[in-house]
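Worked example 2:
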Amino acid sequence: MLKHRWALLVVPLIAIPLSLPTAWASTPLTSSSPAAAQGPTAPRITNGEEARDPWRFTVALVPAGEPDRDLTAFCGASVVAPRWVVTAAHCVSVSRRNPADLRARRSTTFQAVAKRHDLTSDGGERLDVDRVEIHPGYDAGRNPRDDIALVRLSTPTTAPAIGMARPSQDPPESSPVRAFGWGCMRVIPPNDIGSCLEPEANSRTLRQVDLTARGMGGCQEVYRPSGRATYPERQLCASHLEPVPRDTCTADSGGPLVRLVGDRKVLVGVVSWGAGCGWKPYPGIYSKVSYYRPWLRETMRVPMPCRGGRSAMPRC
């Protein structure tokens, strides 16, 4: 299950990467960090807590026509430069049913909301989009691959950027990582996205969840019986399924998976897909930022053409 919320939509730096020079501000980032909510019906990202950690690199993608104090995120993203956010390709591709249709969504159909913790407030920045770049290898089929994209903002955001991980900064197996999002707050089984389509199922305030990085070999073994494939070179795997399941879920897609390197956060993953949300034994799958870092850097350097390829371009 791709972790976006398209069904809800009626329509639905590198300049210098700025890593935050602070450690986790509230809940310590350890593999045993307690979740604030307990039990299968408690509010959560899935069983996370309201984001208190410095989070302002996290952006909500919202439909362009929604009223400003009644926004609902269909996906998340991360600021990596003043004019650029990185998200999942499936969040910004045109087709949600046809894997062969890999055109980018028109940039006028959605906006990016930065520096706004509560989507029902009117703070922060609501920014138009003028360019969408989907990774050329993106496969939207049963086994999503290269599920990563860049969105260029029409005007620069003042939100801080997060540094993109290098290969040496990928999370070791069993190390703590943290995800952020405004997504579904329910534990749901595979193929039961319907329970997340109710508005009250999704959070209007940003939440965070502490997870543990898993080895891709183990993730492959979990998904193989269901006929799903993973790509160890291109993906990361993270979960926390016992004793209380914690996970990312629908509408968290495209959002950040981060870890501490020294006292700085780095973006190591982009929320991509998983079987259910917090459903044992299935971990979440994330696009590995370090693998895509060369493409991300190169794409952000390319001047904006009028139209062409998979980019959603304005007319000249």
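Residues 5-44, 306-316 have pLDDT under 50 and may be disordered. The domain at 6-301 is CATH 2.40.10.10 (Thrombin, subunit H).
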